[in-house]
Predict the 3D structure of the following.
Amino acid sequence: MQSGERILVVEDDADVCGVLCRLLESAGYHITVAPDGPAAVAMVREQRPDAVVLDVMLPGMSGFEVCQELKFHRDTNLIPILMLTALSDRESRRKGLWVGANAYLTKPFDPSDLLRALRRMLDHTRELTEDKVHTRVELSMESDSRLREQLNDLLSQLFLSTPLSEEEIHRIRYAVMEMTDNAIEWGNRRRSDLTVNLAYEVTDRFVKFVITDQGAGFNPQRLPHAAAEDDPVSHMSIREQLGLRDGGFGIMISRGMVDEVHYNQTGNQVTLVKRFKGTNCADGCPPRKTS
């Protein structure tokens, strides 16, 4: 039995909602219910539940919109969100994790999987708020959606441990997620047996992410499939031939999101640095690199 944490269930299907409520209550949680997206946002802001179990197909606002609304604001970011949906395709899962979901489960779901994911989210949030998470973290993750779940957890620490504004955190989050996707897609070529390593460090002057894949590496200045500032659409046909996701603007855009984006000599490791405003970097910031 749990210690009575409060869970908000956001589900418009009465039968599914009933199953969820009985399952969570049997595990010792206190349950409240929101029937649609706007009600969910209002209830989270007013009641501050310990976690949210969120359907995607909702009236008023989609679950993706609800998640982004809550996760992209400092006062509600740390409330963990478990997305529960019938949408099982790769793009829907990717979208859910891009807007900040801490976990993503598909219907029909295994009750033990849901309870386990919920417990993990709650425990991680407690560790964050109790300052048990170190300011230097290294993760080694398989090239799948679990990586993005852990990354969403990790990025929540920026709201707690840095003076960065919400807008700055959103920009850093975009850059880190984009570079992580590049490591999965271009570095590891989506091989599930290869991992991506993420090193994360916060000091009193800057935050730094180092993302390393196990691929052969590449020259980031000479990528025919990537967008270029002088001709930002020429890469589209090449990406289609290679079977890569739409976009290709990751490196170019990320350079505008943080203070530094640079690769190692072999091209399988990228470092992102964001300095805090008003800090004196004379004796503590990493040296600037532009490659």
